[in-house]
Amino acid sequence: DGTRRSGSGHVVGVGGFRATAPRDLCVGDKAVAGGTVRIGMQKGLISVVMPCYNAASHIEESVGSALGQLDVDLEVVVVDDGSTDASYGILSRLAKQDPRLRVFSQTNRGAGPARNRGLAEARGEYVAFLDSDDFWAPTCLRQLQQALEESGADLSYCGWENVGLTGGKGRPYVPPDYAEADLVEAMLGWCLWPIHAALTRRSCIDRIGGFDEQWSSCMDYDLWLRMSPFIRVVLVPRVLAFYRHHDGARITSSRFRIGFNFWRIQHEFLRTHPDVLKQIGRRKIRDMTHGLLLHRALEAYWARDLIAAHKLFRVVMKKWYGKPSDWKYMLPALLPVGVFVALVRLVDSFKRAGR
Q1: Nearest to 79 by CA among 39, 129, 38
Q2: What would the pLDDT profile of 161-195 be if each residue is shown by its tens digit?
């Protein structure tokens, strides 16, 4: 599967971190010349897994982006997660036009369960994820697959662009090269690439059991973080993946959920990998976890998403984290949320009146 194994049967990851792995093959794998292949898996095939929920306005473009990938052998596995709009009808029509598109339907359970259903149906040696409103450049998968095959790495990733953001936030971005980095430490501090900007070997996803369905957001971050101790990565330094941003109100309303889930995922990983805590150090870990949560809380505060800021401030204060200058903003969050919001708005009105 491309991972580096020591003589003791452990997998040696980047940065010296080690993750215990049994010598036996994963359930559903079989030995072949040059490695292992999942039973029923087609060598060289890329499975594009796409969850869909009420995406009628964009689903045809996203599916077309996947089916339009050049010079690769692929299948597109779409799981309609109980859509109430025309999504399933559109998908059914498209599936009749191209046998590479396989469509499945289930009652609404969320993106994580939908992706896991897609993985269960997928037949490829490689897996890429594309959401139902995002898209790729035509050569995206070819370049990612070529990088994997030439390097022997487990995951390839590329640059991306956030379409629809203003103020310079939507500029194309090529991330750093993490091939020689301490991947565990880097990933613990931040999600290094979005879900649609990577291609990985199916065996790596199988090894950690797919997506953890308890998470309502940040499930891609959790997936990459749990893979980080044993994978090797390679960068394709081109912008090939595109994320379509929607209205700001929908994004803003999820600030607390995203920030809090990210923080919980970090701590769940540290709980199951105590060696990481010892190697990085407790003080640095506090900055990477509580410090990031405080940063998100302050972002919410300055955006005047005061309900999210109130909740996040309270989590950070329980951990006794922050400088005195931070506590100046956090302490009022000890008040009930309605009083906190009214107080901040009152201060804002005084400032406007004093101009």
Answers
A1: 129
A2: 988 766 667 789 999 999 999 999 999 999 999 99
